[in-house]
Amino acid sequence: MTKITALDTYDVRFPTSRELDGSDAMNPDPDYSAAYVVMRTDQPGLNGYGFAFTIGRGNDVQTVAIDALAHHVQGLDLDDIVGDLGGFAQRLIGDSQLRWLGPEKGVMHMAIGAVINAAWDLAARMAGKPLWRFIADMTPEQLVSTIDFRYLTDALTPDEALTMLHAVAASKSQRITRLLAEGYPAYTTSPGWLGYTDEKMQRLAREAVTAGFRTIKLKVGMNVEDDVRRCRLARETVGPDIDIAVDANQRWGVDDAIAWLQRLSDVRIAWAEEPTSPDDILGHAAIRRDVPSVPISTGEHTHNRVMFKQLFQAGAVDLVQIDAARVGGVNENLAILLLAAKFGVRVFPHAGGVGLCELVQHLAMADFVAISGKKDDRAIEFVDHLHEHFIDPVIVHNGCYLAPQSPGFSAQMHASTLAHYRYPDGPAWCEPASVARAQ
Amino acid sequence: MTKITALDTYDVRFPTSRELDGSDAMNPDPDYSAAYVVMRTDQPGLNGYGFAFTIGRGNDVQTVAIDALAHHVQGLDLDDIVGDLGGFAQRLIGDSQLRWLGPEKGVMHMAIGAVINAAWDLAARMAGKPLWRFIADMTPEQLVSTIDFRYLTDALTPDEALTMLHAVAASKSQRITRLLAEGYPAYTTSPGWLGYTDEKMQRLAREAVTAGFRTIKLKVGMNVEDDVRRCRLARETVGPDIDIAVDANQRWGVDDAIAWLQRLSDVRIAWAEEPTSPDDILGHAAIRRDVPSVPISTGEHTHNRVMFKQLFQAGAVDLVQIDAARVGGVNENLAILLLAAKFGVRVFPHAGGVGLCELVQHLAMADFVAISGKKDDRAIEFVDHLHEHFIDPVIVHNGCYLAPQSPGFSAQMHASTLAHYRYPDGPAWCEPASVARAQ
Question: Looking at domain A4-130+416-438, which CATH architecture does it have?
Fold first, then answer.
């Protein structure tokens, strides 16, 4: 009988702030980082991998939070985890003492999500399937059994979820065939970082269109005149047929968001992302009501299913982002995808950072095959950074993510990456020129 | 010139689960704990004290999160903190890399709150005033300058806040006189823990009334028949003139809460606290709409001012709890108190745990003197546990908190407490009988 022997953690940081990659109105100098976790078994070569994503300082806090979950994992039979992915997640989320540190939000919830994701990675590896296929091959009953419906039943009951899943189950194999042939649409944020010059933005926007992307996204929120100029330049550059989204990264209050977005309304924005605090459900609803020409979205910082439920109930968003490493793992994202499908809200998964593309593609593809049944009216974010550190990196071709084929959740990093970027003792951080950035 | 030399932290835990003190429907076995912080200066005897409250496991994570803030404090001139309490708080909350770990919620936000509270403690000590008086003696302009209005201006602008504060400023000294003479009303949760027998509950309820309390609170949510029986027994025990509140500690979904509270409506409940997820603003509004006979409240886990703003905007609560150690310190609680005053919502501060009574009394008293101007229609929770560990413990007499007289925020623990209860190496945890609880 296979046992879980350890939950090993690694504080891995990439000095991305040196190049201003990833700069936006709220995050001027991120060092993309991962609190990385390996769920080790006593079977040689069989481990589960996961991580929480952070942007530098505090990645040590995130790593210690994962360590605090070790007693829920060490010594368990493997079957207690991979044979009961719903019960396993509920044991972590239901730890009453740790729950106080959220509840179901922030550092502790992201730590729980990383460990839950590692368990799903392990389960998919054992099944010999990429995670999207592992989920897609579950029966509706199996999928629903992984979800915690606490606080959800006023919007979605288990029976409703089953009815929804059964309705699309018969046509799963057709969608698997389509997914394998076509991939899943991607959009790119690479042209739009605030630290870039107009010329660099335009060059990258042209390259994005040439590469097959149908949607690009620009960061906004530092200066309204700059934003108007950059959006118009981008529209001139890509022409009328490419969607342009903007992302304010929570920069504004509700009143500011309304005034600012009205200034941008003549550029034909595909969506305005994170116009204000991710906690402000009623604020997003007010912005959406007062700026009807701009679709409104949020979600990458939306901390759990209860908040997504309310965004949908309040009619606060036209579309939504999900993030694979912010909420309580695959289980909670399945709940969110079901809620989105029930309310008819399109999902444009958040990615970028380090490894977020690798993770979230599986969720979007499982959603297409087994939950919403849709992919042509939505797209996964793509940023072409840091994929070389993963053993099974994403493949984006002609503006689409190709379906991963290797077993698991694509979360495993190379051993050489862990050694080189481990903070603070890896060579990437110990060289004298690096130390100043490590404050 | 006085400098801040260090931010020292201590993982302090009390083995309260051995006695079932503090047991409720969601927290069966809490070990009340503090991630305790000392902001040290180079002036002998002059330090600031603060803490985040947790219930056991994860207190190490909370402590490490406070450590992650040291670079914002070490080496600063004291004036940069105590002379600019608003700017200091904004520098902590605005650290873009650490902000990713919330934003403004969970472990990192509680850590920031602990450090901000230590700064206010230090400022009040230097002024030679208890914190409530230090706040009450601020001009309206000084008080407003400490508040971060980001994400608030659709509900409360700085100018509105100034107008509110000026309106009560002239009568401050009369209320100070009343506060010093009368104290501030308390209510007690001591009779109502779920782990207690009916007889113990009744005995403690009688003792509470004899001691002068006008409100008691019972924990509910494990079994509806038990709750109906215990509430009726309590009503028989205390008679018709004492208020009885109930607290479900987030046990229910929205539908369950409605059904359960309807069963309790004939006992005349003063308020039902935390009927569902603290994140579920629309859920609280639905419960309040569907159970009009029971006033609805939440707040002890409400993680920031944006959430309180929405509770008020949505009409989701009849009254609200605040917690001194959950949100971003004194500054954010001042914002919340101003919002509550503007929306006319009564505040019943959450306390208990370890040291929460000591802290929150200052905020309630400052609110009475300088913000809402009210105290007779509200009360501070009181639980008679663990006060002996504080140098300036609360004094509750005839059902009222007496106004603290010593300078500071009453947050300092005895050195002997830190030594004895320090986890995992203090004697309270190293004795063989204790080790089993420390899992």
Answer: 2-Layer Sandwich (3.30)
Please provide residue B159's backbone torsions phi and psi, each rounded to the nearest 5 degrees.
Answer: -65, -40
> Which of A281, A282, A306 minimises the CB distance to B277?
A306
- The superfamily (CATH) of domain A172-415 is Enolase-like C-terminal domain (3.20.20.120)
Assigned token pair, B118:
């230590």
- Give the residue from B52, B58, B121, B129 showing the smallest Cα distance to B323: B52
CB contact under 8 A, B64 and A68: no
So what's the pLDDT on residue A436? 46
Q: How far is B208 from chain A (nearest CA, A)?
A: 28
User: Mapping DSSP to helix (H, G, I), strand (E, B) and coil, where does residue B142 land?
Assistant: helix
Structure confidence by residue, pLDDT tens digits, A238-254: 999 999 999 999 999 99
B108–A106: do the CB atoms touch at under 8 Å? yes
**Rounded to whole angstroms, what are the CA distances from B114 to A68, A237, B263, B327, B359?**
21, 50, 40, 9, 11
Comparing CA positions, the residue from B391, B379, B369, B378 lying closest to residue B344 is B378
When scoring A33, A101, A287, A423 by the number of chain B Cβ atoms within 10 A, the one with the most, hence best to mutate, is A101
Q: How confident is residue A433, by pLDDT bands cut at 50, 70 and 90?
A: low
Domain ranges of chain B: 172-415
Report the gap between the CA of A266 and the closest CA in chain B (Å): 25
Whole-angstrom Cα distance, residue A101 to residue A121?
A: 26
ipTM exceeds 0.90, yes or no: yes
